[in-house]
Specification:
Layout: E1 8-9, E2 19-24, E3 36-38, E4 49-56, E5 59-65, E6 71-77, E7 82-83, E8 86-88, E9 91-104, E10 107-115, E11 121-122, E12 128-135, E13 140-142, E14 149-155, E15 158-159, E16 170-177, E17 181-188, E18 191-199, E19 206-215, E20 224-229, E21 235-237, E22 244-255, E23 261-267, E24 275-283, E25 286-293, E26 295-296, E27 299-300, E28 308-316, E29 322-325, E30 338-341
Parallel strand pairs: 1-29, 15-22, 18-28
Antiparallel strand pairs: 2-3, 2-17, 3-10, 4-5, 6-9, 6-12, 7-11, 8-9, 9-10, 12-16, 13-14, 14-20, 16-17, 18-23, 19-22, 19-24, 20-21, 24-25, 26-27, 29-30
């Protein structure tokens, strides 16, 4: 087996994807009991997207940016304290548009949150309620069996490899009493995997055709449709889920020792391990397929639901793959690397 250079995996398994949107529950307009939302300020664009990965307070965060005009839908259970013009299956709800976007630390906030129509309103100057928020606005659903509020999650098995999260769901939950200020912190109802892949020393130029991320765990699926329960974090698979997601490059990507390719895959928001990356490439006119189990010290790496994991520096040799792993997470720093041979 040809000896290859060592490569590195950087894993960020406990990244919090947060969007801070402060909601002030107070009658700012005299005589009004409207539930009013406010945050801080500044920003421009047309859809939600990833920003930079930053370090804040000793932890690493993948920032998700609110953008001008993004719309969220806020639900609360119908009861004695809140009223709204729209309701369904025991929940009332209203849509809100975000503007005046700004970033502070690892959070992206909306300085102005405007209701479409009358919005949510307190029935009296007292009481409390639990609010569930969903982005995009139309993806909130009543959970199966009326067990709470869920976000619809649709992850296609065939993907583009581009980091575009505009249509993927973000969720938030917060309980507040009348007159309190409520912070709606949004979390991703999906998981993100970013890979960087190069050719190993002496292997020359390789042409990537497709990459597939899959799981050997019979109880876990990665793509299809499902529902993410905002209150409990439980995920329910829909019909005919898939255990793999694949990027087929529209124009094959050439990689070398000095020039790599970076691509992104999205999966359901579920805890997973026993993950395999399958790489299909062309070398000297011949099609080659390699399977790389994502292990650490011989044991499968545990990837946690709703996280952004960056897997950097994988190198493809002519024969076999040798992997040098140094994993960094929010909770711990592994100083001793592990060497794995394939």
């Amino acid at each position: 087996m040809m000896k290859s250079n060592l490569s590195t995996i950087l894993s960020i398994p406990a990244v919090v994807l947060s969007l801070a949107a402060c909601s002030r529950l107070s009658p700012d307009i005299p005589g009004s009991r409207q539930v009013r939302f406010s945050a801080n300020a500044g920003g421009i664009a047309t859809k939600t997207a990833y920003g930079d990965i930053v370090e804040d307070g000793g932890k690493k965060y993948a920032i998700i940016k609110w953008n001008e005009g993004d719309k969220i839908r806020v639900y609360t259970a119908e009861g004695a304290d809140i009223e709204s013009g729209s309701s369904s299956s025991g929940f009332c709800y209203a849509d809100y548009a975000l503007s005046d976007i700004h970033q502070s630390g690892h959070a992206s906030g909306a300085g102005k949150i405007t209701a479409a129509g009358s919005g949510l309103n307190w029935k009296a100057e007292s009481g409390s309620a639990t609010f569930y928020a969903v982005y995009p606005a139309a993806q909130g659903v009543i959970s199966s069996g009326g067990s709470g509020l869920s976000a619809q999650v649709a992850i296609p098995p065939a993907q583009s490899g581009v980091t575009d999260i505009a249509g993927l769901p973000l969720v938030a939950e917060k309980t507040a009493a009348y007159g309190e200020t409520v912070n709606l912190t949004f979390y991703a109802a999906f998981s993100t995997f970013e890979f960087t892949l190069k050719s190993d020393t002496g292997s020359g130029t390789l042409t990537l055709n497709s990459v597939t991320l899959s799981t050997k765990d019979a109880a876990v699926y990665l793509a299809g449709t499902g529902e993410y329960n905002i209150g409990t974090g439980a995920f329910t698979y829909g019909a005919s889920p898939s255990r793999a997601v694949t990027v087929t490059f529209p124009e094959p990507k050439e990689i070398s020792e000095s020039e790599g390719a970076t691509f992104t895959l999205f999966t359901f928001p579920v805890d997973m391990s026993q993950m395999t990356l399958t790489v299909n490439y062309t070398k000297d006119g011949n099609l080659v397929e390699k399977h790389l189990d994502l292990n650490k010290g011989g044991a499968p790496i545990a990837f946690h639901a709703g996280c952004y994991s960056r897997i950097l520096g994988l190198a493809l040799p002519d024969t076999g793959i040798r992997l040098f792993l140094g994993a960094v997470s929010v909770d711990d720093l592994i100083d001793t690397p592990h060497e794995i041979n394939y």
